[in-house]
Amino acid sequence: MTNLLWITAIAVALVSAPAQKQNLLLVAPIASPNPAKGQWIKLFDGKTTNGWKTYAKDSIGGAWKVQDGVLYLDSKAKKEQKLGGGDIIHEKSFGNFHLKLEWKISQNGNSGIIFWAQNDPAKYKAVWHTGPEMQVLDNGGHPDAKIRKHRAGDLYDLIEGPDTAVKPVGEWNKTEIIAKDGTLEFKLNGVTTVKTSYGDEIWFSLIGNSKFKTMPAFGRTFNGHIALQDHGDDVWYRNIQIREL
User: Fold this and answer.
1) Which of 30, 112, 137, 189 could make an S-S bridge to 152, C-beta 3.0–4.6 Å?
2) How far apart are the first and last CA of the chain?
């Protein structure tokens, strides 16, 4: 109400002021701050799959389950009970962000954390056709670990990081992905595994030398959805939270 009275007073003063003086007074727009920006929000409430769905579907596949504050893919149920799985995507989208979560992978397992994914199944067959990925992997057992840029903590197929940051299979790993104003950083258990620019010549050169070079939309839009990958193996995620930067 105070702001309204202040604006009204200025308007009255302008109307009553001489014409030559009106041109000298510029009133700046009043900012409307976004109270959510900068605050941590949960993308997973620890109890339900609210906010998540399988890509290109209206709901989440039954093989994605919640137990004891953990969101996990039950690959056995997917195979034996024919429950739906698939990569899952969160309904919210983010540009500049700081994502934190914990994950653990099964023996010989593979998964990934995808970001800036475009939610347009009519154009793109999968989330990884548009969004870059932080690799989630059993470095000690999965064949992908033999490929540089395909190990846990790497910017998948673009940049390799140290392979000493990941915990042994079955243990929880703390992950952070930070994207802000052209700088992208990955942290795994407190160790920076990737730090690079994006949206510049270096970034597009990385894409041009990767398996994504034939995908014209990959890594081109720096605002999109967070997705968790179903690679056919058991994987667990918890404490998924994000804040806009």
Assistant:
1) 137
2) 30
Nearest partner of 57 among 245, 227, 233, judged by Cα: 227
Q: What is the CA radius of gyration of the chain?
A: 23
CA 109 to chain centre: 21
Task: Please state, in angstroms and rounded to a whole number, the distance separating the CA atoms of residues 145 and 140.
Answer: 7
- Per residue of the chain (245 residues), what is the pLDDT tens digit? 434 333 334 333 333 343 333 333 333 333 334 446 889 999 999 999 999 999 999 999 999 999 999 999 999 999 999 999 999 999 999 999 999 999 999 999 999 999 999 999 999 999 999 999 999 999 999 999 999 999 999 999 999 999 899 999 999 999 999 999 999 999 999 999 999 999 999 999 999 999 999 999 999 999 999 999 999 999 999 999 999 99
Which positions ≥6 away from 138 have C-beta within 8 Å?
A: 105, 106, 107, 108, 109, 110, 145, 152, 169
3-state secondary structure of 2: helix
227 Cα distance to chain centroid = 6
